[in-house]
Amino acid sequence: MPKGSLELTNARKEEIINACEELYKTMSFKEITIKEIGKATSFTRTSIYNYFQTKEEIFLALLQREYELWIADLSEIMEKHAILSKDGFADKLAQSLAKREQLLKIMSMNHYDMESSSRPERLAEFKVAYGKSLHTVMHCLEQYFPDMPDSDKQNFIYTFFPFMFGIYPYTVVNEKQRTAMEEAGVNYVFMTIYEITYNCIKCLLKN
Fold this sequence. Notes:
Tetracycline Repressor, domain 2; mainly alpha; Arc Repressor Mutant, subunit A; 2 domains
């Protein structure tokens, strides 16, 4: 593979993103640095700056990849299922997000920091994937609910996507958080990503 080739560039970007993803499993966003990411790659830390200028750009690339994987899942659902009932659509869409815990974690915890600390061109690349996810969900609504008014489809999009930012903190809690809720007397029913998403979609479609 020649030095500087597109294949090498993409391979190194993927290695950096993979290293960041692996660290994020055991470390917090604040704890992860370019230095730590560099230790987990096969090339020098300074080489990372040839591809990403900040750790936020690396996380943004990871989030972009998660959106692209989600889009692929949604597209596969539409290809495999020409028709779905409201229950069936809620089930499939909820399943697709249940597989994307990483997407939900990053977007709920660090989204603002990533966008603020990334170069405009990197942010634009990410927004392409984000925009495509909006369009893909809209295409799902158009395919499965052709009689739904356009205003209702738009309301679904503008309710569901902001809702996604709260899925992770409402469904993934540590023992300290759970204990604090119990001691505070908060009678909160903990649900899975699938359950809370399914219930939201059913409510949106019913209304």
